[in-house]
Structures are given as C-alpha cells and as structure tokens.
Specification:
Bound molecules: (3S)-3,7-diaminoheptanoic acid, zinc ion
CATH class of the domain at 1-194: Mainly Beta
Largest sheet: 8 strands, mixed
Strand order of the largest sheet: 6-5-9-3-2-12-15-14
CATH topology of the domain at 1-194: Immunoglobulin-like
Oligomer: single chain
Helix content: 40-55%
Distance between the termini: 17 Å
C-alpha cells in the first residue's frame, strides 16, 4: 500500500451534497442504487476528473444527469471509478452496485452477523457499499431507503429520522425510508436490517425535545439490554449538564451485534456495538463489564458532538475526535463513580497499552504524519495519550477557560471537518494563552522521562527541587525537544501534614500546586519550611510521563500513608511493590515496611473506600515491571519474582485478608453501582492475594465463593484464582462453568481468556485444544481475542516461551486469519510490539516469527504494515 502523508493533504476536486440510497437487502446479492448530487469544489482543481474509491465492488451501471453511460465513458474496476470528463460544474450521478454481505468476512462495509444485516464504515468501509469520495472532509445529507423481505428483516434502520415505512403489496417485502438532515462523512453511514428485540424509552432533552432512545439486541436477549439503555440516558443528561450539548434527532438507536471488529461505532443516530459492550445481567456480566458498557455507550454517544457534528478533516486528525471523546467518557465515568479510582484505572491502561506502544517500533505521534493503513492507527496513542493531552490542556488553562474553549469549538466548528489547529485555536483564544509549544504533544512521539531531585537546607528552611525532562528517540524522530509538562505537586511532612507551598519568585507554583516544566531543566526553591518535606509529584498523574524520583522507602511509606492525593498514595504503594519485586529478581530480600503499611491500611482506610483499596492491593503487572527494567527482559524471571513477592505479602497479611474476605461478603441482591462494585473488587483482590500466600486456604475459599456466588463478578473472581492452582478443584470449576454457560458466547469468552492466561507450560497445548472447541470460531473477533489475544497480550511467560513456540502460535494464527479478517489479524500481531527489549534468545525467536510473517506472500496491507514497522 502507498504511503499517505499529512503534508500532501489537499481538498477534493468535487463535493457530494446529497446522497440518496435505495438498498434492496439480500443475503448474497444486495443491490445498491445510489444517487449523488455532485458539484465542483471551489477549493479543488478546475478540470480534474471525478475519482471515486471502491473496494471489491461489482458495478452494474453508471448514469450521469439521467443518461446511462457506456463503458467507454468511464473507467471502473472493483477498487475505483473514474469519470474523465469534461464534466459540468454540477451534475447528478447514479451508480448501481451489487454486494454480497454473506461473503464479507472482513466485517467492513455491509455484512451479516447473527443472521442480521449491519455495516461498519469507519475508516474506509463505505467504498465497499458504493463508489464514493470516501474521506472525512466530504460531507453529505443522506436519505436511505431500505427494502427487504419482511420475514428476513422485520426491522430496518438507518441514520437520522424515520420518514416513511410500508409494505410492498403482494411481495412479502417491506421498506423504510430514513433521512439524516445533518451533513456527514461517509464513514458515519450505517444501516441495520434483521430480527431484533428492542428496549426503548423516551428521553426529553434539556430544551424539551422528545427523543426515542432504543437498544436493539439479537432475539431473546432483551433482558440484558437494560443497563445499556440506562447508561445511554445518563450519558445524554451528563453531556447537557457538563458541556451544554443536546441531542439533535428524534431517535437514537443502539444496535448490538455479535460479530464486530472493535468495541462500537458512533454512526449518526445509529450506533452499532459489539454486543460485549451492551449485554449485561448479574449472572453473565462482571462489574468490569458493566463499567465497560457504561464507558463505551457514553463514548459513542459523546461522539455525536465530538466526531459527528464536528468531524475530522483527514485521518491524521483522528485524535481530534478520539482523544477528546475518550477524555469526555473518562470524565463521565469519574463523575458517575469514584474519580480517583477511575483515574488510577485509566492510568493503568495508559501505562500498559500506550507506554508499551510508545517505547517500541510501533511508536508514533498522537497525530501521525504518515500511514499506509489507517485502521492500524486506532491505537492507545491516538486514543489514550490523545485524551491525556486534552486533560493537560484543562490543567494548564484551568477549567473555566477550558469550558469556554469547548463552547467556542462547538460554536465555530459545528458542521465542519476540523483539524487539531482549529481545536487548539479555540483554547488559545478562550484563555489568551499561546499554545504553540504545547502543540508539540501532538507531534512528538515517545514518553518523556521526568527526573526529580531535591535538597533540603534546614538552616535556611528551603527545599530546592530540580526537575528535568528528556524524551527517548522514536522511529523517525531521533532528537526530541522539551515538552510543556504540567506537574501538580505538594509537599508532605514526616507525620503526614501538608506543608505550605511558598516559592522564591523564579518559579511559579500556583494555588493548586501546578508547576509547568517547559524547558529541559528547572529548579523550584520552596521557602519557609521547618522540616524536610517529602515531595509528592505528578499528583493525579498530571502528565503522561515517566517520573523518576529519588525518594527512599521511608519517604514512600509517608506518601502511602498520608498523601492527600489519592493517586500518589496509590502510586507510592506501587513503587514500593516494584522495588520489592526488583529486589527479588536480584535475589535479595529487602524490607521496605510495605507489608506492614499495607496491613495497617487494610485495617483502617481500606474499609472506607473498598474500590480504592482494591487498586492498592493489585500489585504492579508483569508488563509494568518489564517497562521499568527496560531491556534484556526475561518475562519468566519477572513472573517468578512478582509471584514470590505476592506470596510473601499474602502470607504476611493472611489474617487481614481472611477477615476482609469474610466481612465483604454480602447477601443483598446484586447491584452494579459504585459502592457494591468496590466491595466486590476488594473481596476478589483479597482472595487473590490470600490464595497466593496459602494455596490450600485460597483454593477452599475460592471454591466456596465460586459455588455460592449469585453474580458473575464473584464467580469469575473465584475462577480466576482457581485456574492458577493446578488440580481437581480447578478442573471441576472449569467444567462446571462451561456447562452452565455453554449457550452464552460472551461468557464462554471469559472461560477461553482465563485458560489462555494460565502461566504454565501446558497452556500452549490447552490453547490448541480450545481452538477446536465447538464454541470457538475463527470467524468471530471476540472469540479470537478471548483465546489468542489474551494469550499474546496477557500471558507473558507463555507467549514469550524460550523455545519460541508462543511466538509461532501467534504468527501462525495471524497468517491463518489474515485473508479472512485483516484488521483483527493485524491487531493480534501488535503483541510483538515490545520484542526488541527481550533478552537475546527470546528476541531472536520473536524476530524470526515476525520475519516469517513479513516474508509471506499476499499479506493484507494491515498485517504487512504492522510486520514491516515492527521490524524497522
Ligand atoms: N470510531 C470507532 C472506531 C473505528 C475503528 C475503525 N477501524 C469507535 C470509536 O472510537 O468510538
Ligand atoms: Zn471513539
């Protein structure tokens, strides 16, 4: 595939103002009749031909201004259609194509899922339905007429409002006409046809407009749609209250399908979801699933303003909608649940996903400058780091100016395809600040490392804090400039008091403790101190950086016990745990007093905020430790050291953990609210840790919890502990679980995933066997992610087996999947993204597997792009 460059952007030569589609749905031969009103773009070239994109299309006819064109009047193949001209200033164009939804295994364009019809058009799927100017800066008003056999598809949905529906007498067929008055790019087009159960209610907007909001699920699953509908209602209200954004159509439809390449899609007025992010009941979904549903429902709904009303000029601006919308959904969940716990969870994801991506060969700026396959840029960097940039912007200019900037953005850019410059311009104007240097965050890849060191002068009562920053080289960016890094800080005294923040006037720390590090080095002199302070830096994780500080273990214990910033309290615990694990790797036993502090915490604060306590109890992941070490990684050594520390802590804290596990049991009916979710999270975390310390007691408690649980959170929490303990209890629990949920694919995914994650030699063979299980299918993305994705992404010791068989399994799977579904195959291959930091033997095996993939003939652009960049 050719390289696409941001600097080559130019407007299209034509615009398409209206699109009228007439689509006769058929499982293998769907006929698409498309009428376009086309005109020359004043910003385009005067004599240019009309060049439309297609993908695997069968062309039936082309008609211009009512005259059917003969084959010599255009050039067409499955991948494109060109009208050479001469062409008038404006004209109507009718194109008839034929597509086969049943044969569409890529799940892009129009396809079948669970016997229904659905679409996925972002990024470039509309061209698999008809020839089009398939790019986000071409905005059109769509009218869609759908027709189908009533028995085959009683429900017919498209974007916008329903204008008409009826039967076609004597044919058994019916039709529905939908009109979307809001101009939109083709990637937001959607249709659904099929047999679906609907759960609906009325929503009245702030200004009194009535909207029907509905969730449609596969037949028989309606009882599991209630939480999604509830989350939708809360999202709509929140966007009104928090950002003044109202919904703008008469209906808002959410459709859940079982075959979907990613989480969900924000099509205008017709969001289409992976049913994993819709379906929930206490018996089938964990608290984490409920939280995921809330987040994704909110995310897709929020796109209605940040993504749909204001879309992207080109795909390089993807973070304009994605980073901003992730920021918005994170804020929503923070408001609905616990803000500090949400922040910790988000930072965990950022570090595991984005920091890992940013430290390896797939590192790229939040706004990339080139791509070969845009679908490979729906990444943690664009999404999660993109959200961090918006969060930093808010810290830098303050919440009031931030809100004014958002208002200005909505007012000024509504109805347009915008850029990052347009976005930042609104905040510069609203705040009166120059954001030129800040904009570097979009351009420069890599995770900045901030180093802090301090000196206390008792006689002068001063503390000199020196901060410096450096960003490591990334592909194509060997040297880096200093960034604008907001560092929120505080000073804590030995007994836990917050010390006053007064500085000499060279450095400004504002009343909220914000210091902006915008050069390579800076020194802050704090004055008026009567004791040596412990600095609490990067509070709330105020910037997506790695912080290296020289705090000793005693300082960290002070922060762990007393920091008024919950994030840094949690972080201090994580840092102490990391030190224990690193010491265990060196064969040392050290006493950081962490166990003691943790015991104290469990008996006091933990019970006040169980959700927070669960985060404290969860040790840093193996991936976190690997990133800390940075090179010559031996995942088995990390795993063993972490396990040793976990066992020691579990044994040391056994009395506290057993007490907690008992006390946190509840006989009340299941509710997925924040308080109960927190209680169950802590109960599961306590079980996990106590089982590490005492496998016999752990297995007994886990078996009891598994048998008694009346909800999936506790049942799965128990099973997750049991699968780590080989023996009859484990085999029995796995079999019981499979029998109970044999007809529920989403629950069986949890069963596949747990087994794929077992850190044992035998897991590889287990996976080969599970891939032959009747419930497994290489045609379903969720199944593939559950089995192979979990193995590659979460089972560090077995994916990185020294004999290389883990790499071979994933390479073989990627190759087997590529022809069928390149997007899912390419995503799986990104499991190799940290291969270069492995120790030499594993590095060699991983490289060989990657080279074998790269050298295979006929690869998709998706897989070839990932393989190629991984090896660069
Ligand atoms: N915008 C979609 C993602 C589309 C991915 C295309 N490969 C979902 C979301 O971010 O909301
Ligand atoms: Zn999104």
């Amino acid at each position: 595939a050719p390289v696409v460059r941001l600097e080559d952007y130019r407007p299209t030569d034509f615009l398409i103002d209206t699109v009228v589609l007439d689509i006769a749905l058929d499982a293998t031969a769907t006929r698409v009749h498309a009428d376009f009103s086309v005109r020359r773009n004043p910003a385009g070239r005067a004599d240019a031909p009309l060049v439309l994109q297609g993908d695997e299309l069968v062309l039936l006819s082309v008609t211009r201004d009512g005259v059917r064109l003969t084959a010599d009047q255009y050039q067409a193949d499955p991948q494109g259609l060109i009208l050479p001209g001469p062409l008038p200033e404006s004209f109507s164009l009718t194109i008839e194509t034929m597509v086969n939804p049943s044969a569409n295994t890529k799940l892009m364009g129009l396809y079948r899922s669970g016997g229904n019809y659905c679409t996925q058009c972002e990024a470039e799927g509309f061209r698999r339905i008809t020839y089009f100017l398939d790019r986000p800066d071409v905005l059109s008003v769509y009218t869609t007429r759908l027709e189908a056999a009533r028995a085959d598809a009683p429900l017919l949905l498209a974007n916008g409002n329903l204008v008409e529906r009826g039967d076609i007498p004597g044919t058994g067929r019916h039709y529905a006409v939908w009109h979307d008055p809001h101009p939109k790019p083709a990637y937001l087009f959607a249709l659904v046809g099929g047999t679906l159960d609907t759960l609906a209610e009325e929503f009245v907007t702030a200004s009194g407009r009535k909207v029907e909001i509905a969730v449609h699920v596969e037949a028989g699953k309606r009882e599991r749609a209630a939480y999604a509908l509830d989350a939708l209602r809360r999202s709509m209200r929140w966007d009104e209250t928090t950002f003044g954004r109202e919904y703008d159509l008469d209906v808002f439809n959410v459709v859940a399908v079982s075959d979907f390449n990613m989480g969900a899609m924000e099509n205008k007025g017709l969001n289409i979801f992976n049913d994993k992010y819709v379906l929930a009941s206490s018996d089938t979904a964990t608290d984490a699933d409920y939280a995921g549903i809330e987040t994704v429902i909110a995310h897709e709904y929020f796109h209605n303003w940040t993504g749909n009303r204001i879309t992207c000029r080109d795909w390089f601006q993807l973070c304009l909608k994605e980073g901003l919308t992730v920021f918005r959904d994170q804020e929503f969940s923070a408001d609905e649940r616990s803000r500090p716990v949400k922040r910790i969870a988000d930072v965990r994801t950022l570090r595991t996903q984005q920091f890992a991506e940013d430290s390896g060969p797939l590192s790229h700026p939040v706004r990339p400058r080139t791509y070969r396959e845009i679908n490979n840029f729906y990444t943690a960097t664009v999404y999660e780091k993109g959200a961090e940039i918006v969060r930093m912007l808010r810290s830098l200019i303050g919440p009031a100016a931030f809100r004014r900037g958002m208002d200005l953005y909505f007012a000024r850019c509504d109805g347009t395809a915008a850029t990052i410059e347009d976005f930042l311009g609104c905040f510069a104007e609203a705040s009166g600040r120059d954001l030129g240097h800040f904009a570097q965050w979009y351009e420069q890849a890599g995770t900045p490392v901030v180093t802090a060191s301090g000196q206390y002068d008792a006689a002068a009562g001063t503390y000199r804090l020196t901060l410096s920053q450096a960003t490591p080289p990334t592909p194509g960016q060997p040297t880096k400039a200093p960034m604008v890094i907001p560092i929120v800080l505080g000073l804590v005294g030995a007994s836990g008091d917050a010390l006053p923040i007064a500085t000499t006037n060279e450095a400004t720390v504002d009343a909220d403790g914000l210091f902006v590090l915008d050069s390579a080095n800076a020194t802050i002199t704090f004055t008026g101190l009567t004791e040596r302070p412990v600095p609490s830096l990067l509070r709330g994780f105020s910037a997506p950086v790695r912080l290296e500080s020289e705090l000793d273990d005693d300082d960290l214990v002070v922060l762990f016990r007393h920091d008024s910033d919950p994030f840094n309290q949690w972080q201090a615990g994580q840092t102490l745990a990391t030190r224990l694990i690193l010491a265990a790797m060196r064969g040392e036993t050290v006493n950081t007093r962490f166990g003691e502090a943790l015991g104290h915490f469990l008996d006091s604060d933990a019970r006040n905020d169980p959700a927070f306590a669960a985060q404290v109890l969860a040790l840093p992941s193996e991936a976190d430790i690997a990133r800390d070490i940075g090179r010559d990684i031996n995942p088995t050594a990390i795993h063993n050291a972490r396990l040793a520390v976990k066992r020691a802590l579990g044994a040391e804290l056994a009395p506290h953990l057993n007490a907690l596990h008992g006390a946190l049991q509840s006989s009340e009916a299941y509710r997925p609210d924040a308080a109960n979710t927190g209680r169950r999270a802590l109960r599961n975390a306590a079980l996990d840790l106590l089982a590490a310390g005492d496998a016999t007691e752990g297995a007994a408690r886990a078996t009891a919890q598994f048998d008694e649980a009346d909800n999936m959170t506790e049942r799965l929490g128990a099973l997750a502990v049991l699968v780590l303990i080989p023996g009859a209890a484990r085999d029995h629990a796995l079999a019981t679980f499979a029998a109970r949920y044999g007809d529920n694919p989403l629950v069986l995914d949890k069963w596949f995933a747990l087994q794929a994650g077992i850190p044992e030699e035998g897991t590889l063979d287990r996976i080969t066997e599970l891939a032959r299980h009747p419930a497994f299918s290489m045609g379903n993305p969720n199944r593939i992610r559950a089995l192979f994705g979990s193995f590659a992404m979460t089972n560090a010791t077995q994916f990185n087996r020294e004999d290389g068989r883990g790499y071979d399994l994933i390479a073989d799977t990627v190759l087997a999947l590529d022809a069928r579904n390149p997007q899912v195959a390419a995503r799986l291959l990104t499991a190799f993204r940290t291969w270069r930091v492995l120790e030499p033997i594993r590095r060699g095996k991983a490289e060989a597997a990657l080279r074998r993939v790269a050298a295979t003939q006929g690869l998709s652009p998706d897989v070839s792009d990932i393989a190629g960049r991984s090896l660069e």
